[in-house]
Design goal:
Blueprint (H helix, E strand, L loop, with lengths): L3 E6 L16 H17 L4 E6 L30 E5 L10 H7 L4 E7 L1 H14 L3 E10 L3 E3 L2 E3 L1 H15 L2 E3 L1 H8 L1
Parallel strand pairs: 1-2, 1-4, 2-3, 4-5, 5-8
Antiparallel strand pairs: 6-7
Helix pairs in contact: 3-4
């Protein structure tokens, strides 16, 4: 087993109740992430908190730097010294320094949690794989939302599991929080 790092993607207030982009089951996903986060803290392994910000606050007023909605949720709040990477694109590696941080720490495997399964988790996992990292996504530590296309609604659970199934096909392993913690303990 190589050196692991935890990548926590966009667990921000906007995705919780009363946010502008409320997801399905964000609390459960954040609490499961907190369990994985505690494991990484205990083992003193690299942790990367990813925070999405609006590149154009006028066009996309959510995730404006310094606002309550853009803040990382209290359930996974970074400790002093933990790395926070701010991003403007779905891929957590794009223009953030995340790749350099992982290389500096000799990371070969990434464990990914976060929001939204169908967007930033998907894009970041695929990018991590393309950069040569072994990827594990903690499925119950991620959340999604209902999506619409051509007048049809795709329920959040279906979106979530479809994207996880696609990732598991080649990009990485999908584990539950308990499965992951039982394997590494």
């Amino acid at each position: 087993m190589g050196k692991q790092a935890l990548i926590i993607i966009d667990i921000q207030n906007e995705y919780f109740e009363n946010g502008n982009l409320t997801l399905v089951n964000p609390v459960e996903a954040s609490l499961n992430t907190a369990k994985v986060l505690e494991h990484f803290r205990t083992k003193n392994l690299p942790i990367a908190h990813i925070q999405h910000l609006s590149a154009d606050p006028v066009a996309l007023p959510v995730f404006v730097e310094g606002t309550h909605g853009a803040a990382i949720h209290e359930n996974v709040k970074p400790l002093d010294g933990e790395k926070i990477f701010q991003k403007y694109y779905p891929n957590s590696f794009s223009e953030t320094g995340l790749g350099e941080y992982l290389k500096e720490n000799d990371v070969t495997e990434v464990v990914i949690t976060g929001m939204m399964t169908h967007m930033c988790v998907d894009a970041s996992t695929r990018a991590a794989f393309d950069f040569g990292y072994k990827c594990t996504v903690i499925g119950d530590a991620c959340a999604s939302k209902d999506l619409e296309i051509n007048g049809k609604t795709v329920k959040a659970d279906d979106v979530h599991y479809a994207f996880l199934a696609a990732l598991e096909f080649i990009y990485g392993e999908i584990k539950s929080t308990d499965e992951f913690l039982n394997i590494v303990s």
